[in-house]
Write a structure and sequence with these properties.
The complex is a heterodimer. By secondary structure, chain A is an alpha/beta fold. Chain A has 19 helices and 20 strands. In chain A, strands 1, 2, 3, 4, 5, 6, 7, 8, 9, 10, 13, 14, 15 and 16 form a 14-stranded mixed β-sheet that branches. In chain A, strands 18-17-19-20 form a four-stranded parallel β-sheet, with helices on both faces. Chain A has a two-stranded antiparallel ribbon with strand order 11-12. In chain A, helix 15 packs antiparallel against helix 18. By secondary structure, chain B is α/β, with parallel strands linked by helices. Chain B is 48% helix and 12% strand. Chain B contains 20 helices and 14 strands. In chain B, helix 20 links the parallel strand 12 and strand 13. The longest helix of chain B has 16 residues. Chain B is globular, with a radius of gyration of 25 Å. Classes of the chains: A alpha/beta, B alpha/beta.
């Protein structure tokens, strides 16, 4: 049993959504406010086992009850009780994995039934089974909805006690035992108090008895101190799971969530639907991985989860990933199209969680953008507000990566050295709506910086290199790259070298070949230098390119 | 399972349900009367309602056809209740064979019982065969009771039924005649005689329960029937069996207290409804009177003409008799809608000296016009269809003395059966006729032996 099709209208931030989820695991990914959690809440409502749910204006789209909420879920392979002639059998529909939903089941289809949850302007929730061919809808009772075993794995504390209706209670075969154990314990406590000696308490009670007699009150027996059964407020719900002496409410958050999921598996021998918001909440990456593996292997539970964790994006097979986007209040959920994307996703999983991606040549450029972000953030919004992210394109794979992410609906630009193969593809990429920003002339980033920064800036760049290397090795690296026919005096200490075009050229080349800044943190340092001198070089090519990037990254 | 009449097939199904698991079975038969009879039997036996759903094969199949019109190629008929049954059955059979919708059957029922299987048409048999591939089906019937009067051929017991559904051992005790072993034995022998195409003697070896009334003339015959009916009145329900509708109606007129059993889908209802909705006032009045005449005795041509002229204002006499009826008819004549018709019918039945012999027809038509007057139906025909459907489903109670053809009374039990002109019946009709009475069977004939053809 699983949800084969979901249609949502006018619910919270979703004006319209139509989605065909996977029968197994569905991991909803997307930037903030993409309405991921709303989708989970919608599924929770349409199959809620509760007799009634509280709906008010804040649940309606645009906060007005004039837009009726409808949430329609087509359940493939529904519970047997729903398929009977005297329940909803006559409204049976069909579902095919490739063909989709048919109003009448066709040969080869899986039987399916469609549930519709509606709220009109009276704010009353209604659940019906519907079919296109039949104008009359039939009411679906709470008990019947409960057969779908839809559960939200969230607030956990109650689930780990034996209170009525909790998962632990459902998993317990002999329910009466909890109540019995409980009432025996209460009786035991009362007996224990009665049996032991409480001299102070008994003395007080006796004094009261004596005084009361003078007022005309005489007890039948004697006044004593004992436990009142009513005052104990003990119910089966007080029986909770313990790790020896530690009650489960004191377990770590991640542990409690995992236990809840494990309980769900115990309880449902029949198929079920699990909803998990913020899957990674409280969990370390290795536990996330373990849990994902387990969920992917479960055949009887259809799971819907939302996540912001790159670990999830990295570990799951691409078919489980669902990219959620909201545009003009129309939410779309797209599957990740092919296996090839897996490599991209594995390499830069955090890309799926952003909105706008700047695919850079390498870690140097990513570092530079990060440093520039800090600089820009002093006067404008940080890139995080726009969901913009610089990513490592790993040189020649940048175009492929850019295309794949663009296909998934992300806003993409390539920022690369102009001495690379990407330059040749620039025109084609532009036609596919992927802009390429490059330095003018055929140079790498390092060369560009050494060319355009003021000499003070160059010295600051060299200072970064001096943190990890000694002067002589730098001198050797540079000397080795001086072209024949040029002479440069490098005998002075590095930071006292003088500004000469030939020197700048050699330094740039050395920086590139020797990898002086080819790590993220070094790129950031270089970026900080650039940021400091940005105002001075605004008319240079570096300045204009940086400005182009700034505009693109910050646009609406 | 093949078993003779009165051996307890329905009873057996009830016991099977009681003995089986607490799950639901589908129990099918052919007529609404059959449904009521089976349901009554199950209630008497104390079978819990969640163990069965009883329906007619037609009703059950139609539900699926209407719910899955594309799969079963079903189209709503132009006029109510005129379904294209062969298409309905073949469509639903196809659904059961190849559509995932057959999961509905397996989710609802663990098995099926089909009663009166000898009356299944070939499309119905094909449908049951398809059903048997989904859930275990047990079919019960008696080829010797296969009577029909429509063009549709019924299933051949030996070639079609037994080859599809392997035979179970038959029942052996004639429960219906438990109290009279001699009668039971004679009927048992009669069955064998009829099965072997031998003549059935009406002279020798008759038990006390069986009598033959021999008369010389027609009037004598009718008097004898009337006498017998009166005699039996005290000891239970009587059925007078005769084959031809007109004969039924005439006999009923001459035999006070006996009412005609109308066929459920009889055209007389529709014909009457059409005639009473004639466009002109004059036609309506005359048709009303003619209709009343067919349903009454004691209402002759002269009286009809007098009332007709009085209502239309062309009367020549100044008689004051039947003022109430004339007033009602006048309203029918003057009105431009059909609203006054039910009151006119009631008024006519109230006339002195008049006896209603076809109450079922008369009352049903009246009810149809009342329903039409109340609204919700576009035509009288629709109102009639709805009224008939309600009657069909609510069931009709049999009056103490009934007259009808074998087709209408098969499956029913009466204390006394009077069989008029048995020499006109074929084997199956004869067998059904002689097995209707539990306490007595009276032949009204001059023959010495009966030689029914098949």
């Amino acid at each position: 049993m699983h949800i084969a099709e979901l249609v949502i209208k006018n619910f919270r931030g979703i004006r319209d959504l139509r989605w065909l989820p996977n029968p197994g695991l569905n991991c909803l990914l997307g930037p903030g406010d993409a309405t991921k959690s709303t989708i989970l809440t919608a599924i929770d409502l349409v199959l809620s086992p509760a007799w009634s749910v509280g709906i008010d204006e804040t649940d309606c789209f645009e906060l007005t009850t004039a837009n009726p909420i409808t949430i329609t879920a087509t359940i493939a392979d529904p519970p047997t009780e729903w398929r009977r002639e005297d329940t909803f059998g006559m409204l049976l529909r069909g579902w095919h994995p490739t063909d989709g939903v048919h109003d009448e089941p066709q040969p080869g289809d899986v039987p399916a039934l469609t549930v519709r949850f509606t709220v009109a302007d009276d704010c009353e929730p209604h659940w019906h089974i519907v079919a296109d061919r039949e104008p009359i809808e039939r009411m679906l009772s709470a008990k019947q909805r409960a057969l779908c075993n839809t559960a939200r794995i969230d607030t956990v504390d109650r689930q780990l006690t034996w209170s009525p209706g909790s998962l632990l209670t459902k998993a317990t075969a002999d329910r009466d035992q909890a109540a019995l154990t409980f009432s025996n314990a209460a009786k035991g406590a009362r007996e224990a108090i009665r049996a032991t000696d409480h001299p102070e308490l008994t003395a007080t009670a006796t004094r009261l008895q004596t005084t009361a007699q003078q007022y005309g009150v005489k007890p039948r027996g004697a006044f004593i101190a004992a436990l009142d059964s009513k005052a104990m407020h003990l119910r089966a719900g007080c029986l909770t799971l313990h790790d020896t002496v530690v009650p489960s409410r004191l377990f770590g958050l991640g542990t409690r969530r995992i236990l809840s999921l494990a309980l769900q598996e115990l309880v449902t021998t029949t198929p079920a639907i699990a909803l998990i918001d913020e899957f990674e909440y409280g969990l370390e990456p290795h536990r996330i991985r373990r849990l994902l593996r387990k969920l992917q292997a479960l055949t009887t539970i259809q799971t819907f989860m939302t996540t912001h964790s790159p670990v999830c994006a990295h570990e799951l097979t691409p078919t489980a990933l669902c990219i959620v986007r909201s545009h003009n209040h129309v939410t779309t959920v797209k599957p990740v199209p092919d296996e090839d994307l897996r490599k991209t996703i594995r390499a830069v999983p955090e890309s799926l969680l952003a909105r706008r991606l700047l695919i850079c040549e390498g870690p140097t450029e990513v570092g530079i953008i990060r440093a520039l972000d800090d600089h820009w953030a002093t006067t404008a919004e940080p890139l995080a507000c726009r969901g913009a992210l610089p990513l490592d394109g790993e040189g020649s794979t940048a175009p492929k990566r850019a295309r794949e992410l663009h296909k998934l609906g992300y806003d993409v630009m390539i920022f690369s050295d102009s001495d690379s193969s990407i330059a040749a593809e620039a025109a084609t990429l532009a036609q596919e709506c992927i802009e390429v920003t490059m330095w003018a002339g055929s140079v790498c980033t390092e060369q560009q910086l050494f060319n355009d920064l003021p000499w003070q800036g160059v010295k600051e760049l060299l200072a970064i290199v001096l943190q990890d290397r000694d002067e002589q090795s730098i001198r050797n690296q540079v000397t080795a790259r001086i072209p024949t026919g040029t002479t440069l005096d490098l005998t002075l200490p590095v930071l006292e070298w003088t500004d000469r075009p030939a020197l700048r050229e050699v330094l740039g080349r050395t920086a590139g070949h020797a990898g002086w800044y080819k790590q993220l943190h070094l790129g950031e340092e270089a970026g900080k230098v650039l940021a400091r001198h940005l105002a001075a070089i605004s008319t240079t090519n570096t300045g204009t390119v940086v400005e182009t990037l700034r505009v693109w990254l910050h646009r609406e | 399972m093949c078993s003779p009449a009165g051996y307890g097939k329905t009873h057996l199904i009830g016991h099977a349900l009681l003995a089986g698991p607490d799950k639901r079975h589908l129990v099918l038969t052919h007529t609404h009367a059959g449904v009521h009879a089976v349901r009554k039997r199950f209630t008497q036996l104390g079978v819990s309602k969640n163990r069965y759903r009883i329906d007619t094969i037609a009703g059950w199949a139609l539900q699926y056809a209407q719910a899955f019109p594309t799969t079963t190629h079903y189209t709503k008929p132009a006029q109510a209740l005129q379904e294209d049954w062969p298409t309905v059955y073949s469509g639903v059979a196809e659904l059961l064979r190849s559509s995932p919708a057959n999961a509905i059957v397996t989710a609802t029922y663990v098995g099926a019982y089909v009663d009166e299987y000898q009356d299944c048409s070939l499309p119905q048999h094909a449908l049951m065969t398809a059903l048997a591939e989904l859930i275990p089906c047990r079919v019960l019937g008696d080829p010797l009771q296969a009577i029909f009067d429509f063009a549709e051929p019924t299933v051949d017991w030996n070639n079609d039924v037994v080859t599809t559904f392997p035979a179970l051992p038959p029942l052996t005790q004639a429960h219906r005649w438990n109290h009279d072993p001699a009668f039971a034995a004679w009927l048992h022998q009669a069955r064998i005689t009829l099965e072997n195409n031998q003549p059935l003697s009406l002279r020798n070896g008759l038990p006390t329960a069986v009598r033959v009334l021999r008369t010389a003339t027609f009037p004598e015959r009718n008097r004898a029937i009337l006498q017998t009916v009166n005699q039996k009145r005290a000891t239970g329900k009587t059925v007078v069996i005769t084959q031809w509708p007109r004969q039924c109606h005439q006999l009923a007129r001459q035999t006070p207290g006996v009412y005609v059993l109308e066929p459920v889908d009889g055209e007389d209802f529709a014909i009457a409804a059409a005639q009473l909705s004639a466009p002109t006032g004059a036609n309506r009045v005359n048709n009303l009177l003619a209709f009343a005449a067919t349903c009454f005795t004691g209402f002759d041509q002269q009286q009809q003409q007098r009332l007709s002229r009085a209502a239309q204002g062309t009367t020549r006499t100044r008689s004051t008799a039947n003022n109430q009826q004339i007033a009602a008819l006048k309203m029918v004549y003057d009105a431009n809608d059909l609203a006054p018709i039910p009151d006119a019918l009631t008024a006519l039945a109230d006339m002195d000296g008049v006896r209603v012999t076809r109450p079922e027809l008369f009352n049903e038509v009246k009810r149809a016009f009342v329903a039409f007057r109340e609204g919700g139906h576009e035509t009288v025909h629709d109102a009639l269809a709805a009224t008939r459907q309600r009657t069909r489903q609510a069931g009709r109670a049999l009056s103490q003395q009934t007259m009808g053809r074998t087709l209408l009374i098969k499956g029913l039990e009466f204390e006394h059966a009077i069989l008029v002109a048995p020499e006109e019946l074929n084997t199956q009709n004869l067998y059904v006729a002689i097995t209707r009475g539990t306490h007595s069977l009276t032949f009204v004939t001059n023959a010495d032996a009966l030689h029914p053809g098949r």
